[in-house]
Amino acid sequence: MSPGIPVLLFAPLIVCVLALALDVRLGEPRRWHPVVGFGRLATALEKRLNTAPKDPFRSLLAGLFSVFLLTAPVLGLAIWVSVELDGVLLILIQAVALWLAISLRGLAEHGRAVAEPLRDGDLEKARDQVSRIVSRKASALDEQGVAAAATESMLENGADAVFASLFWFLVAGMPGVILHRMVNTLDAMWGYRTPRFLYFGRMAARLDDLMGWVPARLTALTYMLLGQRELAWRCWQKQAPQWDSPNAGPVMAAGAGALNVRLGGPSPYPSGVKHRPVLGGTQHASSDSVDGAIVLVQRGVRLWLGIVLVTTALLMLMVYL
């Protein structure tokens, strides 16, 4: 057996462990975050090219061109690096790229920033903190509404900012995780059903749905396995199809069921009250459900790493045999 085979087989696991260690130790970069820079570039490009939002054909074409213009050069560079480099240098570069794409520590910090004032009875502070992570009208939320919004954010962002990044790295390496992060960012910026973005943002939204389809269901499965399994499965099967997002539905329903917490329902937004389907079990959302969602994501990451380790060990065994 070639000496390089063990390193090749264990490289994905090593990269994931290093990236998560960087995330736990350093969190998200406070300055010069590439995703922030990418978002600013996307904003500037959208202002320049989205000049005819009421014309469906021109707006769709402008959105398609914008997605290509923003993603193609970065994706090409990621592919070139993955092909031309190898060994320890490539592992380190991949680890940094994955670290910049995931946000496990940041997710927990944002969630706890809401849960702690809720426990202390400081509703105003909890509203202020939840307004940083959701688009709801925080001033109109009561204690339960704040807790539900934060719990939903932990579950949904666990899929988008943690598990989807791990999935795309394991499936397609550094190019996969970078492309997913770019597409997910563009969807978060442009994927609105407003007059300005209805057509322009459609390509980004559809690409994000496509890239998120498998990771979302793996995330839902993860939540189900680590929580109240029977309830999570029933919620996933019966409630998820009622949700307007094909990927958020399974994640939110399975997560709410796993925690046996009641989520969804009417929620106030700046544009008015949005009536959403009810998800989950019977218990009201609280600071405990926010903490529970954080723990569910963290345990899920450990489960995924364990599966990668076992899979790698089996591959090694097959090589030796």
From TrEMBL:
Q: Transmembrane stretches, by residue range?
A: 60-81, 88-108, 161-179, 303-320
Name of the gene encoding the protein in the UniProt record: cobD
* UniProt similarity note: Belongs to the CobD/CbiB family.
InterPro entries referenced in this protein's UniProt entry, alphabetically: Cobalamin_biosynth_CobD/CbiB
* Name of the featured protein: Cobalamin biosynthesis protein CobD
Q: In which pathway does it act?
A: Cofactor biosynthesis; adenosylcobalamin biosynthesis
Q: Give the source lineage, highest ranks first.
A: Bacteria, Pseudomonadati, Pseudomonadota, Gammaproteobacteria, Pseudomonadales
Note the NCBIfam families from the entry: cobal_cbiB
This chain's function reads:
Converts cobyric acid to cobinamide by the addition of aminopropanol on the F carboxylic group.
What keywords appear on the UniProt entry? Answer: Cell membrane, Cobalamin biosynthesis, Membrane, Transmembrane, Transmembrane helix
Q: How does it sit in the membrane?
A: Multi-pass membrane protein
Subcellular location(s): the record lists: Cell membrane
